[in-house]
Amino acid sequence: MALTENPNLAGSFLSLSNVGVTYSTRRGETRAIDNLTLEVEDGQFVAVLGPSGCGKSTMLRLIAGLLKPTLGQLLFKGQELDGPNKEVGIVFQNPTLLPWKTVRDNVMMPIRALKLPAEKYKDWCDELLEIAGLTDFALAYPHELSGGMQQRVGICRGLIHKPKLLLMDEPFAALDAMTREHMGAELQRIWMNTRKSVFFITHSIQEAIFLADRIVVLSARPARVVEIIDVNLPRPRNADTQSLPEFGQLSSHLRAHFLGDHKNQTDARP
Ligand SMILES: Nc1ncnc2c1ncn2[C@@H]1O[C@H](COP(=O)(O)OP(=O)(O)OP(=O)(O)O)[C@@H](O)[C@H]1O
Q1: If we measure between CA atoms, which residue out of 179, 184, 186 comes closest to residue 147?
Q2: What is the tens place of the pLDDT at every residue in 245-257?
Q3: Distance separating alpha carbons of residues 166 and 90, to the nearest angstrom
Q4: From ligand 1's centre to the CA of 31, what distance in Å?
Q5: Residue 118 region, left (φ>0) first, then alpha (ψ -120 to 50), else beta?
Q6: Distance, CA 23 to ligand 1 centroid (Å)?
Q7: Is residue 23 in contact with ligand 1, taking CB distance under 6 Å?
Q8: Where are the beta strands (DSSP E) in 52-138?
């Protein structure tokens, strides 16, 4: 996967410098990302907030190595990507589990896909299922699980090959409000136990503040970084965290980004 080493940025875990992406279609060109510059440190939980259609998923595809920047440079551990990034795990909005496979076999899917030795990952699979509270369901089938449990299986599957970075594209968007809040707490617990870097795309301001070390605010399309906010609230965060004055201040500050500029046409929710 490594192509070019850049000594200036070799120490960064993930860096995007002046990255631009333009899609060319039969109907013309769409500039999805423009001059986007961002650095992510190893082990950090980064949340990305931005208006609908601004280019968040495109950013995720870049980091996953599924797309190349049209302009600028993306370095992962100091190196350019040349094809799919095998050191990331991906969790989508819909976990899309295989209905004919058990929970354990669904979690182990990437191991087969990446042709890694299954024996070496069995213990880690059990450990992940335990961290996610799914040990008793290891042999259950997806239809026997609730939506939240299925999404937890999706998170375990994203972590099974021990990726350096977990990419999450609105993973809780399809869940009801209560399950979503519960999943936020679960994800924090899983993250605190595994300490992987996480790149988490969301439309929810509350979710971003609750989970992240840093929040990256993007502009309307083409996406560029409008602001990066460090969230220094103590961990583990819980229901009481949301009543802290800092939480409210951050929330108002972020809301102003989206509600103050009608051109952004955001659907970011408070
Ligand atoms: N494969 C593609 N070909 C052409 N245009 C694309 C492609 N993928 C995305 N786009 C365009 O790029 C822009 C950004 O899309 P993207 O999916 O990255 O936004 P997003 O912020 O993730 O959206 P949402 O918040 O609605 O999920 C959109 O205008 C979209 O139409």
Answers
A1: 179
A2: 999 999 999 999 8
A3: 6
A4: 9
A5: alpha
A6: 9
A7: yes
A8: 71-76, 79-81, 88-91
